[in-house]
C-alpha cells in the first residue's frame, strides 16, 4: 500500500488522467462527426456507429472487468485497459476507411471499460481515511462531470485547427505517460485469485445481456421504443439478464455475488445514481440542441456556453465538497445537491424561444453545476463506504455500469419524448417554438427524475444505527 501523501497524490493524478481521457473521448468525437463523415465517406446512419460501437463495448464490459480487477489485481487490469485504449486511439487516428474506424472504436470501448471499471475501487483503497477519501472522490467526480464540457470545446478546436485525426491521436502522449507512471505509483495488488470468482458462463451471460441492452438503447432513436427491432433485441437482453441472475444465485463462485445487494447503502446509491445520470445525460444532450437549433449557436459557442457547468463543478467538487461533507455528512450534502439540480432543471423547463443566455440559462446551469459538484462525490463516497475490500472493484464496476446504462436510457427516453412532442407541434407552430416545447417537456421530466432520486436518497441512504 502507498503510504506517503505525495505518492498517493501521484497515484490519484494517474487515475484522474485516465478518467479524463476516457470521458473526453466520449464527447470530443461529437463535434468532429461531420468532418469524419466527409473524409471517410460514412452514410448518415453509419456515422452513428462511430459513437455506438464505443458505447456498446464500454457499457457491456464494465461489470465483468470490474470483477476481474478483484480477482487478478486492479493495477494489472487498469494497465491492460489503458494500453489497449491507447493503441486503439492510434488506430482510430490513422483510420483509412469507415470500417477500420468503427472497429477501432469498439476496441477503444473495450480498453476504456477495462481501465475505468477499477478506478473508483483503487481510489477507495488508496484513501481509507474519510476526509482524504472525500477530497479524492471530489477530484474524480469533477473529472467525470467536467470532462464532457471540456471535450466539446477541445473537439471543435482540434478539428478546426488541425484535423479530426488529432481528437484520437492526442490520447497517445496522455496514455503512454499514465501507463509509465502507473507502474511506478500504483500498488501491484495480487487480487483474490480467479478461483474465487471465475464464473465464465456468468461473464458470457451478463456481457451479452449488457451489450444487447446498450445496442437496443442506442438504436431506439432511429426505430422507436415499440418497433420490432427494439423488441427483438431488448427482449433477449432481458432474458439473458434474468438467466444471469439465476446463475449468480446458484453458482458457488458468482461473478456478481447477490449478497452485494444486501447492502441498503450500496443498492440505494446505485438507484439514486441511475436516476441522477439519466436526467443529467439527457440534459447535456438536449441543452446543446436548444442552443444550436433554437438559439442558433455555433459548435464553438455551444462548447463555451457549457463551460460554466464545468467551472461550477470544479470549484465545488475540488474546493468545497470535501469540507462541507466533513462538517455535515454525505447524506445532507447529497440531498442539498439534488435539490439544486432539480431547481435548475425546473428553471430550464421554462426556457423561452428567444432565450437570453445570461438570464434564462446561466443561473440554471450554475445551480446544476454546484448541485452536481456537491451530490456526486457524496453519493460515490456513501455507496463505496459499504463495500467490502474484496468487492471494491466489483462495486466500482457496478457504479460505472449503472452510470453508463442508465445514462444511455435517460438520454434516449428524454430525446425521444422531446422529438415526439416537437414533431407533433411542428405542424401547427413555428419550428423553433415546437422544438422548445419538446425540450421544456424533457427538462420537466428530468427534474422529476432528480426529485425522485432525492426521495430515494432520503429513504434508502439513512445512516445505520450507531454501531
Mind explaining what this structure looks like?
This is DHA2 family efflux MFS transporter permease subunit. GO terms for molecular function: transmembrane transporter activity. Keywords: Cell membrane, Membrane, Transmembrane, Transmembrane helix, Transport. With 467 residues, the protein is mostly helical. The protein has three domains: 1-198, Up-down Bundle (Growth Hormone, Chain: A), CATH 1.20.1250.20; 202-252; 257-467, Up-down Bundle (Growth Hormone, Chain: A), CATH 1.20.1250.20. Helix content is 82%, strand content 0%. α6 (119-126) crosses α18 (392-426).
Feature tags:
3 domains, mainly alpha, transmembrane transporter activity, Growth Hormone, Chain: A, single chain, 467 residues
Amino acid at each position: 500500500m502507498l503510504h506517503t501523501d505525495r505518492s498517493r497524490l501521484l497515484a490519484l493524478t494517474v487515475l484522474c488522467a485516465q478518467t479524463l481521457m476516457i470521458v473526453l473521448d466520449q464527447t470530443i468525437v461529437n463535434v468532429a462527426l461531420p468532418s469524419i463523415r466527409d473524409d471517410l465517406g460514412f452514410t448518415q446512419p453509419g456515422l452513428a456507429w462511430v459513437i455506438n460501437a464505443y458505447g456498446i463495448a464500454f457499457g457491456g464490459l464494465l461489470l465483468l472487468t470490474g470483477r476481474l480487477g478483484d480477482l487478478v489485481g486492479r493495477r494489472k487490469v487498469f494497465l491492460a485497459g489503458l494500453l489497449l485504449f491507447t493503441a486503439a486511439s492510434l488506430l482510430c487516428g490513422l483510420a483509412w476507411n469507415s470500417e477500420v474506424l468503427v472497429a477501432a472504436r469498439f476496441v477503444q470501448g473495450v480498453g476504456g471499460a477495462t481501465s475505468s471499471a477499477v478506478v473508483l475501487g483503487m481510489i477507495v483503497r488508496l484513501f481509507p481515511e474519510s476526509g482524504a477519501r472525500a477530497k479524492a472522490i471530489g477530484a474524480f467526480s469533477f473529472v467525470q462531470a467536467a470532462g464532457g464540457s471540456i471535450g466539446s470545446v477541445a473537439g471543435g478546436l482540434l478539428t478546426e485547427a488541425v484535423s479530426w485525426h488529432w481528437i484520437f491521436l492526442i490520447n497517445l502522449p496522455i496514455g503512454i505517460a499514465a501507463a509509465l507512471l502507473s507502474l511506478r505509483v500504483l500498488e501491484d495488488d495480487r487480487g483474490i485469485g480467479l478461483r474465487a470468482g471465475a464464473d465464465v458462463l456468468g461473464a458470457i451471460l451478463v456481457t451479452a445481456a449488457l451489450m444487447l441492452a446498450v445496442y437496443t438503447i442506442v438504436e431506439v432513436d432511429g426505430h422507436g421504443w415499440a418497433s420490432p427491432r427494439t423488441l427483438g433485441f431488448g427482449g433477449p437482453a432481458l432474458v439473458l439478464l434474468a438467466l444471469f441472475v439465476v446463475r449468480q444465485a446458484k453458482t458457488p463462485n458468482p461473478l456478481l455475488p447477490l449478497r452485494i445487494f444486501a447492502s441498503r447503502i450500496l443498492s440505494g446509491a446505485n438507484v439514486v445514481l441511475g436516476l441522477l445520470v439519466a436526467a443529467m445525460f439527457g440534459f447535456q444532450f438536449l441543452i446543446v440542441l436548444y442552443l444550436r437549433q433554437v438559439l442558433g449557436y455555433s459548435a464553438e459557442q455551444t462548447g463555451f456556453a457549457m463551460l460554466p457547468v464545468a467551472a461550477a463543478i470544479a470549484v465545488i467538487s475540488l474546493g468545497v465538497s470535501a469540507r462541507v461533507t466533513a462538517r455535515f455528512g454525505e447524506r445532507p450534502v447529497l440531498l442539498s445537491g439534488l435539490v439544486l439540480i432539480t431547481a435548475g432543471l425546473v428553471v430550464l423547463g421554462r426556457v423561452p424561444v428567444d432565450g437570453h443566455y445570461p438570464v434564462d440559462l446561466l443561473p440554471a446551469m450554475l445551480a446544476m453545476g454546484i448541485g452536481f459538484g456537491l451530490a456526486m462525490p457524496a453519493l460515490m463516497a456513501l455507496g463505496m463506504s459499504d463495500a467490502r475490500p474484496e468487492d471494491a472493484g466489483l462495486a466500482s464496476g457496478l457504479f460505472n455500469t449503472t452510470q453508463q446504462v442508465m445514462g444511455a436510457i435517460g438520454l434516449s427516453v428524454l430525446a425521444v419524448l422531446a422529438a415526439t412532442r416537437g414533431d407533433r407541434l411542428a405542424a401547427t407552430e413555428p419550428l423553433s417554438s415546437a422544438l422548445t416545447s419538446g425540450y421544456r417537456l424533457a427538462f420537466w421530466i428530468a427534474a422529476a427524475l432528480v426529485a425522485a432520486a432525492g426521495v430515494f436518497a432520503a429513504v434508502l441512504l439513512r445512516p445505520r444505527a450507531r454501531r
